């Protein structure tokens, strides 16, 4: 596996593969890799001839006062992790490579970013859309892989790809969890041992809502209340939002009649945890379509 820091070199490498008729998969990440990222890389390796992974802590998606400086980083470990998985190229640009002096174009999907994480992190999804569009233009992949742990992010990026006629399949991948149900996240490293033991409560809260829907309940206010009640059982959790929205427009729904995302964010100590369940009344376990 080679590591590339220049966008020009990365472009040349990925385009050479395409010219040879090889398919390319891209997995964009911010590094400090774990098995959740690994599952995206494995899926890409299974579906493409070549797999490119980017590790870039993207400054434009962090707001003032957020954890840009503190965000965990371990490039040597990330590189060894990706090499062991069999990734073909690691793109690890510096911020000045992605945002050179004079950079002034931003991409956003304001309607889809208005609620959920977008409401508490203004400008976050603008930064995400901008950097992911750049990465897609650099690597020109056939497929790009995203985790449903960050469900709003996937739905926004899928919309961006459709709206801007990008020639890439956007592939949603299931959330990978620790044995106790906590969604894996680089930011879990902020948890103290006590907080780490408490953290799976967020998953249990969302499962309470999912159980209600799977049992035939359709009232999404009730589903939200179940999540909030469960979170309230531990005063260390500070709920930031619990929302139930339709996956097509990310707007609140009163009843679960189509594919519905129930997503929550909560503060626990220094960490901000997010998780979600996606419920489809037609199919129960159907997963969101790509493209
Ligand atoms: P990040 O490095 O946190 O920006 O994540 C990079 C990609 O990995 C995003 O598409 C995330 O949704 C995905 N990802 C992060 N954690 C997980 C997880 N636990 N399971 C599946 N995908 C994940």
Summarize the entry for a quick read.
With 291 residues, the protein is α/β, with parallel strands linked by helices. The chain has 11 helices and 9 strands. It has helices spanning 7-19, 35-47, 75-85, 95-98, 110-113, 117-120, 124-139, 151-163, 193-198, 201-214, 220-232; strands at 2-4, 24-29, 50-55, 89-91, 143-147, 169-173, 237-246, 260-268, 271-279.
Question: How would you sum up this structure, described in words?
Answer:
This protein is α/β, with parallel strands linked by helices and 291 residues long. It folds into 2 domains: 172 residues, Rossmann fold; 100 residues, Pantoate-beta-alanine ligase, C-terminal domain (Pantoate--beta-alanine Ligase, Chain: A,domain 2). It has 11 helices and 9 strands. It has a 6-stranded parallel β-sheet with strand order 1-4-3-2-5-6, sandwiched between helices. Strands 7-8-9 form a 3-stranded antiparallel β-sheet, covered by helices on one side. Helix 7 packs across helix 8 and helix 10 runs antiparallel to helix 11. The mean pLDDT is 96. The structure holds adenosine monophosphate. Adenosine monophosphate binds next to helix 2 and strand 5. The site of adenosine monophosphate has 17 residues, from helix 2 and strand 5.
Mean of all residue-level pLDDT scores = 96
Number of domains: 2
| SS element count, helices | 11
Which band does the percent of strand residues land in? 15-25%
Ligand roster: adenosine monophosphate
Q: Give the termini separation.
A: 28 Å
Name the helicity range: 25-40%
What low-confidence regions span 5 or more consecutive residues with pLDDT below 50? none
């Amino acid at each position: 596996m080679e590591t590339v820091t220049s966008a020009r070199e990365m472009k040349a490498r990925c385009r050479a593969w395409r010219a040879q008729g090889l398919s390319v998969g891209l997995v964009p990440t911010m590094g400090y890799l774990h098995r959740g990222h690994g599952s995206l890389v494995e899926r890409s390796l299974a579906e493409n001839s070549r797999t490119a992974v980017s590790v870039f802590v993207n400054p434009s998606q962090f707001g003032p006062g957020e954890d840009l400086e503190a965000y965990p980083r371990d490039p040597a470990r990330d590189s060894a992790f990706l090499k062991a998985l069999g990734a073909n190229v690691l793109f690890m640009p510096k911020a000045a490579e992605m945002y050179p002096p004079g950079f002034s174009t931003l991409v956003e999907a304001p309607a889809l970013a208005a609620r959920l994480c977008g409401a508490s992190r203004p400008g976050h999804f603008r930064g995400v859309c901008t950097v992911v569009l750049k990465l897609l233009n650099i690597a020109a992949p056939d497929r790009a892989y995203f985790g449903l742990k960050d469900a709003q992010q996937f739905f926004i990026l899928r919309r961006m790809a459709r709206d801007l006629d990008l020639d890439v399949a956007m592939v949603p991948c299931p959330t990978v969890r620790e044995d106790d149900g906590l969604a894996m996240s680089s930011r879990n490293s902020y948890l103290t041992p006590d907080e780490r033991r408490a953290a799976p409560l967020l998953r249990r809260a969302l499962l309470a809502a999912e159980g209600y829907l799977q049992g035939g309940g359709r009232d999404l206010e009730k589903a939200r209340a179940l999540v909030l009640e469960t979170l309230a059982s531990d005063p260390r959790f500070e709920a930031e939002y619990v929302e139930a929205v339709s996956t097509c427009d990310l707007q609140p729904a009163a009843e679960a009649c189509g594919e519905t995302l129930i997503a929550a964010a909560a503060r626990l100590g220094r960490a901000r945890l997010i998780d979600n369940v996606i419920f489809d009344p037609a199919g129960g376990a159907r997963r969101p379509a790509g493209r």
